[in-house]
Specification:
The complex is a heterodimer of chains A (154) and B (107).
Chain A: E1 4-12, H1 16-24, H2 26-32, E2 37-39, E3 47-51, E4 57-67, E5 71-78, H3 82-85, E6 90-99, E7 102-111, H4 117-139
Helix pairs in contact in A: 1-2
Chain B: H1 2-8, H2 11-22, H3 28-32, H4 39-51, E1 55-60, E2 63-68, H5 71-100
Antiparallel strand pairs in B: 1-2
Classes of the chains: A alpha+beta (154), B mainly alpha (107).
Chain lengths: 154, 107
């Protein structure tokens, strides 16, 4: 079975509800996710897109499953890098689980092919995003270097 | 963070991580190959790695698959690296402002 995926797990001192909002609300995402905003009504079957500050769409797809605030599965297509776009849809699952004193976030990104460039690319991006998210939620401080990319570092 | 360093302090456990880095999502049986150890010993090492959050597991049918979770290592690196990166981005930002003539008057 040709399948390529990664599974990332992080523990964040917050509640599932706050984490859910942080993952899916534009005001939150642009503070830790390289300045992008995620846009959708997050209902099953709805479309979603990820947008750069300058309006370019980076990724898009469809909401496959949603169970607020525990689990969301997104069909995912890269829109701006031809070689990643050529691989077609991948799938991203985010699972949120309360554990003692914290919330466990599992992000699984997978595609039905082996040696995927998409998985390689997102595999490198997610650690930074998740680490920023953790810092933001645990300290309540936006990260200077990631607010809208390099621009607002000063 | 102590857990992470302790987990990484053992050569067998580092080998297991290397193996997952090479091929993610292996079963216990696959991870035992190439090790001159009992399944129990490997299971014990994997449990330590999982407790340190360096390995994440998923059920796939009847199989339990093991995945390398790089986040704790990333966070350790980030802890001592971020401020240097910040400085580099600040320098770029200054350069951009100067080149675009949009200095805020401070310099």
């Amino acid at each position: 079975m040709a399948n390529d995926k990664f599974v990332y797990v992080t523990y964040i001192r917050t509640t599932p509800e706050v984490l859910w909002n942080a993952l899916l609300t534009p005001e939150f995402t642009r503070q830790y996710w390289f300045g992008v905003t995620l846009e959708s009504d997050w209902k099953k079957g709805s479309t979603w897109k990820m947008v750069f500050p300058d309006g370019r769409v980076t990724d898009s797809g469809e909401v496959l499953e949603v169970e607020k605030p525990r689990r969301i599965v997104l069909k995912w297509l890269n829109e701006w890098m031809p070689e990643l776009n050529a691989e077609g849809f991948s799938r991203c699952t985010m699972e949120i689980e309360p554990v003692e004193g914290a919330t466990k976030l599992t992000v699984i990104h997978e595609i039905d092919k082996s040696q995927s460039k998409v998985i390689e690319a997102v595999g490198g991006g997610w650690p930074r995003i998740l680490s920023n998210l953790k810092t933001l939620l645990e300290t309540n401080e936006p990260l200077a270097m990631t607010k809208g990319g390099c621009k607002s570092a000063a | 963070m102590d857990d992470v360093f302790k987990a990484l302090a053992d050569p067998v456990r580092r080998q297991l991580l290397d193996s997952l880095h090479q091929r993610n999502g292996q079963t216990l049986g696959e991870l035992c190959e190439g090790h001159d150890m009992s399944r129990q010993a490997v299971t014990k090492h994997l449990a330590i790695l999982e407790d340190a959050n360096l390995v994440a597991t998923r059920k796939d049918g009847r199989e339990k698959l093991h995945f390398l979770n790089p986040l704790p290592i990333f966070e350790i690196a980030d802890r001592w690296v971020r401020k240097f990166e910040h400085g580099r981005l600040r320098a770029l930002d200054e350069l951009k402002k100067n080149l675009e003539g949009k200095s805020d008057g401070k310099r």
